[in-house]
Amino acid sequence: MKIRSSKPQRWLKWAGALSASLFASAAFSHGLMVEPPSRNAHCGLNEKPDQATTPACVEAAQLDSNGMYQFMSVLTHTIGRSGGDSTNVCGYDSETWNGGPSPWDHQLDWPTSSMSAGPQTFSWNISWGPHWDDTEEFKYWITREDFVYQVGSTLTWDAFEDEPFCVLNYDDTDPDGNPAVVAEKASNLFHTTCEVPEREGRHIIYGEWGRNYFTYERFHGCVDVAFDGSGSGGGSSSSSGGSSSSSSSSSSSSSSGGTSSGGSSSSSSSGGSSSSSGGSSSSSSSSSSGGSSSSSSSSGGNAGSGVQCEYVVSNDWGSGFTAEVRLTNIGDQPVTGWEVEWEYADDTVLTNTWNAIVNGMGPFTASNLSWNETIGAGQTVTFGVQGEKSEGVAEVPEITGAICN
């Protein structure tokens, strides 16, 4: 039975506002799911509106008066889906959008991440003011078995199971008390492990990060997933630490029976990117404050593997940058297992990476994680790096690797 009451929400909004004033000196954090990447990680963290290339990201930016720049602020002061209600699912009537739809509530042809039933890790990046001691719980819901994703329809709670498939508590006074929640504080990450139910085709996982009485803040997001390798042709995989962005091609796709969601997708390409040669594979970015955002890239070769490797500088603010490596399988057979290498000629150092296992101090090597090991025909896998450098344009290094030669 669904328990939906607006009274607790109204009270909690008042309580949240009161507690925010009482604890004004506290450092409040913001965050979003980055492994697998939520919609606002794909389109907001990875792809800014002025450099978006994925059609859904381009359209989402056009639909948002904030231009997707509030990607980490999909929040409410509510009890969330358990005992609460909202008109919009993915943004949960976020206060940032005054209770209206966020850009990630529109049912566009969002990129998908590969998913399988069983133990899976969902990671939250809370880099935007990391704060750990008031985190209380994480909750996840999944669409019903008969769900059918429909671009242009309206996503409602009727498409989801009534009960969450995963509820995890966390107490920072005993950070190891729940082994299913790992606080990787050095990287500003929470890793949560859940048992994902059996599904087929394309589905949506809705997640919440809830904080306790200090703020009563709750953050919301939707992850688009494809079970058994089906689903969006333009889907991407994601991984720990940051976020992943997906390939330029996207597609909708299939599962049986059910209800779903809305919006149409449009295509576009990123603005003003300068290209230079040299193969590389690197990925998208977390954004940084201030500074200009420009995009430059280098393309790698594509050998018998049929993989095109591209290094794209997605944000450059003088003393630092973020970049994305895109590995696009342009062949007609899946590629399983990948590793690439690169080196900076200047004094660049890396401060953060995501969606790949990155080793070295220069040269650097990056290899796949378990969930993004396979690059299907026509699909793109990305990973990201963030670095510091001297003033000047961010370097676009040459990337080498067996799949790029």
TrEMBL record:
SMART domains recorded: CBD_II (SM00637)
Highest taxon listed in the record's lineage = Bacteria
Cite the CDD domains for this sequence: LPMO_AA10 (cd21177)
Q: Where is the CBM2 domain?
A: 298-405
Positions with biased composition (Low complexity) = 237-300
PROSITE patterns membership:
CBM2 (PS51173)
Segments carrying the region annotation (Disordered) are 230-305
Write out the entry's keywords from A to Z.
Disulfide bond, Signal
Q: Where is the signal peptide?
A: 1-26
User: What protein is this chain from?
Assistant: Cellulose binding domain-containing protein
Taxonomic classification, please?
Bacteria, Pseudomonadati, Pseudomonadota, Gammaproteobacteria, Cellvibrionales
